[in-house]
Specification:
The protein is an alpha/beta fold. It has helices spanning 20-27, 40-43, 50-66, 77-87, 102-118, 140-148, and strands at 4-9, 32-37, 70-73, 89-96, 121-125. Strands 3-2-1-4-5 form a five-stranded parallel β-sheet, sandwiched between helices. Helix 5 links the parallel strand 4 and strand 5.
Length: 179
């Protein structure tokens, strides 16, 4: 029987304070991993630069001081989750709903299909006033106000149990980002 885990997928928001997905994971009795992906497809996209990746990497180093269960990889998201699911029973993936470019939106649609096929619950929380896939803008202001009034999420990081991704998995990921 594979061990059950939750995953906090860090995208653009690399904070611990007021981070809804992290808050949900810390309140669960299931251990969680924090994951970030330096996606090769994104690094080749026109709006990303080495300066951006350096900032992300420095932010991850800072985040790792607070989250011992944080891992980052130079790999695509869906194939990475597939590999992890071979060794772990992923219960939930928590992330922010990203508003960005078409490439990240297409990636998220692929992950949504993968999660559905694997019976994994993916909880995407709003991170700003952008609402994906609105049929019209008639309700946008109400939805924006609801998001902006949401309480600040305070995660209790003191109770995080150390959890090693590598105990149950032969990982074929590589971290080879050269800054």
């Amino acid at each position: 029987m594979k061990p059950k885990i939750n995953i906090v997928w860090f995208k653009r928001d690399l904070r611990t304070r007021d981070h809804g997905p992290l808050y949900l994971a810390t309140r669960s009795k299931i251990p969680f991993l924090g994951l970030y992906f330096f996606e090769p497809s994104l690094s080749q996209y026109y709006d990303w630069s080495p300066r951006h990746w350096r900032f992300v990497y420095q932010s991850l180093l800072s985040l790792k001081e607070k989250l011992p269960n944080l891992y980052w990889f130079h790999n695509e998201v869906v194939s990475s989750f597939e590999k992890i699911s071979q060794a772990y029973d992923i219960q939930n993936i928590y992330s922010h709903q990203e508003s960005g470019t078409e490439i990240t939106y297409d990636r998220d649609k692929k992950l949504k299909k993968w999660c559905k096929a694997k019976n994994i619950r993916w909880v995407e929380m709003p991170s700003n006033g952008v609402v994906r896939s609105l049929k019209s803008r008639d309700q946008w202001e109400r939805l924006w106000a609801k998001t902006m009034r949401t309480k600040v999420f305070e995660s209790d990081l003191s109770n995080i149990k150390p959890f090693s991704l590598f105990e149950n998995i032969e990982i074929a990921f590589a971290f080879s980002v050269d800054f």
